[in-house]
Design goal:
The protein is an alpha/beta fold. The chain is built from eight helices and five strands. It has a five-stranded parallel beta sheet, with helices on both faces. Bound molecules: P1-(5'-adenosyl)P5-(5'-thymidyl)pentaphosphate.
């Protein structure tokens, strides 16, 4: 019988270094690398629609519940089409954002009820939760300062300071409430130091015996 692979999610605010660290870790442990929203053809189309700065112009804002449902539609397809089969084959998966981003952004950020968002996440993922969430913790102002100088912020990046502060507090609250499945890393350190802390967290997970 093949052992199920391990699911590791990178979480945190904008510009925390998730994509950089997810790529480094996936290369180091030869895991499947993917991201959310996205990871499938359908998910990539939903991503484009959710994040494009002009997606909801002319004064029409996207209702937070619509945003939640679109994030979850992308996740349901991602889990059934890609993440689930890879884990079942015994290979590890590194994902750049997963359900904790939904709790932090749509729950803490947008103000939707946290327990309802959690139940909706569980439904979308078939109750799949990461074996390890790695929170790259950085002040929102530092993360925003890492954006390429001429890049246009996407629809969610363009939200105000208060929104991004609520998201950051949300991530910290999630990590504090479930320390078995979370590790918090100071993402203001340089890339190499963060990568070493990530590898140490993954080694600890393996010593504990992988998926729980
Ligand atoms: N979202 C997502 C929800 O609202 N709900 C959900 O359920 C989900 C899944 C996704 C958006 O969707 C939202 C959250 C997001 O708003 P995204 O592009 O995937 O968007 O996420 P971002 O956080 O916006 O991605 P970024 O690319 O901006 O940030 P990363 O991935 O955290 O950072 P990274 O690695 O690309 O690095 C950014 C820059 O910083 C440098 C890099 O070289 C790069 O230039 N850098 C560092 N510089 C100094 N020190 C370090 N330690 C550095 N690490 C990286």
């Amino acid at each position: 019988m093949t052992c199920r692979g391990v699911l590791i999610a990178f979480e945190g605010g904008e510009g925390a270094g998730k994509s950089t660290q997810a790529r480094l870790l996936a290369d180091a442990i030869d895991a499947e690398l993917t991201r959310e929203p996205g990871g499938t053809d359908l998910g990539d189309r939903i991503r484009e629609w959710l994040l494009h700065p002009d997606a909801h112009d002319e004064g029409r804002s996207l209702d937070p519940r619509t945003e939640l449902m679109l994030m979850l539609a992308a996740r349901a397809q991602h889990v059934s089409e890609r993440i689930g089969p890879v884990l079942e084959s015994g290979r590890d998966v590194v994902v750049d954002r997963f359900s904790a981003s939904t709790l932090a952004y749509q729950g803490y950020g947008r103000g939707l009820p946290i327990e309802e968002v959690r139940r909706a996440c569980s439904l979308a993922s078939g109750d799949l939760w990461p074996d390890l969430n790695i929170l790259l913790d950085v002040a929102p102002a530092i993360g925003a300062g890492r954006a390429a100088p001429c890049s246009l912020p996407d629809r969610i990046e363009a939200e105000g300071e208060g929104f991004h502060e609520r998201v950051a507090l949300g991530f910290r609250a999630l990590a504090a409430a479930d320390s078995d499945r979370w590790v918090v890393i100071d993402a203001s350190l340089d890339v190499g130091a963060v990568a070493r802390a990530v590898r140490e967290a993954v080694s600890t997970l393996r010593r504990r015996g992988g998926p729980r």
